[in-house]
Amino acid sequence: MQITHITKDDFFPTFKAAFFTSISISKLAHKLALIKAKCRRLHTANKILSKHQRAKKTQLRLRGSLNTAKAKAIQVEKGVINARSENIRQEGAHTEGGESRRRRCSNCGKTRHNVRTYQVV
């Protein structure tokens, strides 16, 4: 079959289909580029994380397991606690001597109950 003459009615639907196909292909190419960039970022993050985990495992293998005595020695060395196992507080800490504060009722200020159990007389 040889086409000698193409009419507008024959050409337009074919052109329209090809045009929308090219638009959808360009959108897909754009999405593919975004997905590749995201995949690249995730791959590098995963690489860094696995490297960190490998380093932790190697360090644990070389130094052995950590018990409480070793942990306390490391904390004393870093200055987190002193030799008597007391926490070293920052300047301006609100509580002194490790006293815990009791929670108070927001209505009356007493410590034996809270707002939910408070009974108005």
Automatic annotation (TrEMBL):
Chain intervals for the UniProt region annotation (Disordered): 87-106
Highest taxon, organism lineage: Eukaryota
Residue stretches of biased makeup (Basic and acidic residues): 87-100
Protein name: Transposase
